[in-house]
């Protein structure tokens, strides 16, 4: 990688960091390129040299946040050899991370019409999450079958509900409560799918 490439990558990362901070402060609908430039400490023209529009920049932020999220879950999961433990821990970490994500939570509070279509089934983001979970559950040498796809879908649907819900019976800010939900509701489906007891 050349110095110019590193500089370009560093500037692009700065822009995305600034866009994330600005969106957390202003929301996405009212967000302007000036807001982003100010948060990134860069000139507006620099933003346009990397991203053609605010929409393209917001899409890049969402893509990077998703990649970071999945990489974090993969790092958590890699610490557990036992499939049950891996599923429970990644589920708990994933739900808590989404419930604490600044931009997501702001949008759910102030711009639900903009974010909810991306949180519902039919959304490419949820499809990516379902496929990712199914691959984590499957033997690395094979594609996940229908049974594991079903477990992955159940996991995503349950996580989606917990992320969008206000706490009631369960304290959803408590990782142990989320682990307990995964053990009681997802592990039986996993055991049925894999023939484990």
From TrEMBL:
One of its GO terms (molecular function) is transcription cis-regulatory region binding. Residues 32-51 bind DNA. The keyword Transcription applies. Keywords: DNA-binding, Transcription, Transcription regulation. It comes from the Bacteria. Residues 9-69 form the HTH tetR-type domain. The keyword Glycosyltransferase does not apply. Transmembrane segments: none annotated. Coiled coil: none annotated. This is TetR/AcrR family transcriptional regulator.
């Amino acid at each position: 990688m050349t110095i110019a490439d590193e500089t370009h990558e560093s500037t692009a990362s700065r822009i995305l960091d600034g866009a994330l901070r600005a969106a957390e402060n202003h929301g996405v609908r009212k967000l302007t390129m000036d807001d982003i430039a100010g948060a990134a400490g860069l000139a507006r023209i620099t933003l346009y040299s990397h991203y053609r529009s605010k929409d393209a920049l917001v899409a890049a932020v969402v893509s990077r946040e998703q990649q970071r999220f999945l990489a974090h879950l993969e790092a958590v999961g890699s610490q557990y050899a036992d499939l049950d433990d891996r599923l429970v821990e990644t589920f708990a970490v994933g739900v808590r991370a989404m419930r604490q994500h600044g931009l997501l939570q702001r949008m759910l509070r102030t711009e639900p019409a903009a974010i909810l279509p991306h949180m519902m089934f039919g959304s490419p983001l949820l499809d990516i999450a379902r496929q990712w979970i199914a691959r984590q559950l499957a033997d690395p040498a094979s594609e996940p079958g229908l049974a594991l796809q079903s477990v992955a879908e159940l996991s995503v649907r349950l996580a989606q509900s917990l992320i969008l819900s206000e706490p009631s019976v369960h304290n959803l800010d408590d990782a142990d409560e989320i682990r307990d939900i995964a053990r009681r509701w997802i592990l039986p489906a996993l055991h049925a799918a894999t023939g484990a007891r």
